[in-house]
Amino acid sequence: MKQGLYRIHFHTAGGASQAMGAGVVSLRDGRVSGGDSNFYYTGAYHLDGTKVTVHATVLRHTNEPGSRSIFGTDTTKVTLTGSADIDGQIRAFGVVDGAGIQFQVALKWLAE
């Protein structure tokens, strides 16, 4: 897996309640940090071969009118599990800890 800056896209399960979001995240030396226009993400990741596991907290930093978390709360702990390839693509499935909300994540490497 490449370390560095990634573009992140995420969405919850389909249907009328589907929600989407995007941002940037840095994966470096086991640490995760990033964000989007309303939330920031911090945490840690573990790599075992091509398997990636992420434990992160998502916190609101800006309260823009009409903005909502795709998870329904301003502070959320999430766990992601997925796989990384040599070209800087990561695909993962996530769950909101304690809430059972599931979502999918796609990351694409951008830069060191």
Could you give a quick summary of the protein structure above?
This protein has 112 residues and is mainly beta. Helices cover 0% and strands 63% of the residues.
Report on the structure:
- An 8-stranded antiparallel beta barrel has the order 1-2-3-4-5-6-7-8.
- The chain has a single domain, classed as Lipocalin, CATH 2.40.128.
- The mean pLDDT is 90.
- Strand 2 and strand 3 form a beta hairpin.
- The N and C termini lie close together (12 Å).
- By secondary structure, the chain is an all-beta fold.
Could you list some keywords that capture this structure?
eight-stranded antiparallel barrel, 112 residues, mainly beta, 0% helix, single chain, 63% strand
Q: Please state the second-level CATH architecture.
A: Beta Barrel
As an assembly, this protein is single chain
- The name CATH uses for the topology is Lipocalin
Indicate the proportion of strand residues.
over 45%
- The poorly predicted ranges are none
Topology:
Layout: E1 4-12, E2 20-28, E3 31-35, E4 39-48, E5 51-60, E6 75-84, E7 89-96, E8 102-111
Antiparallel strand pairs: 1-2, 1-8, 2-3, 3-4, 4-5, 5-6, 6-7, 7-8
